[in-house]
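Researcher: I'm preparing a figure for a lab meeting and need a structural model of a single chain. I don't have an experimental structure, so a prediction will have to do for now. The sequence is pasted below. Please return the structure as C-alpha cells so I can convert it later.
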Amino acid sequence: MNLLELFARTLDITLPVFAMVFIGLVLKRLKWIDTAFVSTASALVFKATLPTLIFLSLIKADLSVALDVSLMAFFAAATLAQFLLSWAWAHYHVMRENRGIYVQGAFRGNCGVVGLALAAGMYGNYGLSAGSLLLGVVIVMYNVLSVVVLATYQPGQSTDWRSLLKHVVTNPLIISVFTALPFTAFSVSLPSWLITSGDYFASLTLPLALICIGATLSVSSMRDSSQVAMGASWMKMVTLPVLSTAAAWLMGFSGEQLGLLFLFFASPTAAASFVMVKAIGGNVALAANIIAITTLMASVTVTLGVFVLRLLGWI
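Model: Understood. Here is the structure written out cell by cell.
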C-alpha cells in the first residue's frame, strides 16, 4: 500500500466523524437547528441513547477480548499522569485564576462521543465494547480530578465529596456499564425484538451527538481566544497524545490496543468541562474557547496521528 492509499484509508475513518461535526456547525448557522434543540438533543444522548449504545455493545461483546485489564490499568495511569503534567505546567505558566480551567481543558477528553465514534469507525464492535469499558473507568477519574483542580483555584469553592460521589454513582454512562457486565459475564440473552429496537434507538447517538457538538462551536469566540486557550488546546491535542501513545508503545501495546488508546487520548476537550466551570462561576469564555479550538484541531491531529501510526506499523 502506497502513502496515498494509506492516507485515503485514514480519511475514511476520521472524515465521517468530523463531517458530522461540521454539518452541525452549518445547520446552526442556517438556523435549521437552535439552542433549544441542541440542549434537548444533548440531554437525550447523555441520558438515554448513549447509555443504550454502551449497554448493547457490551452485552454483544466477547468479554474475554473486550475486558482487557492491562489496557484499562494503563489508560487510568496515563489519564492521571496527563492530569498531573497539565497541572505542573499550569502552575508555572498560567495565572492562578485560570489554572483549574486550563488543566481540565488539557486532560479531559470527549471519549464518550468523539472517542467512541472514532473507535467504532476504526475497529467496529471491538472498538465499541472495549472503548465502553475504558469509558467507564475514565468517567469516574474525569469527574473526581476535575472537581479537585477546579475547587483548588476557584475562590469560595471546596471539594464536596458527597456531591461528587452522587454525581458519579448516578451517571447514566457508568450505570450502563455496570448494568451490562452481568449480562455479558453470564451470557444472558435478550429477546431479538428488544435488541433490534435498542439498536434503532442507539443508532441515534453518534450522529446526533456530533451534530450537537458542531452546533455549539463558536467561530467568533475562537477569534477572541486567549493564549491560555491556545496553550491548553495544544497540550490536549498534541503534547499529551504524543507522549501517552509513545509511552503505551514502549509498554508493549500495539495494533488495536494502541489504536484505541490513541483515539481516546487524542479526543478533543469534553463539553462537560464547560458545564463544570459554569457551575462554579469560573471563566466560561476560556472553557468554551478550549472546547471549540480542540474540536476543530481534532479533524487534523487525529487524522495525522492515525496516518503516522499506520505508517510506522504500530497499529
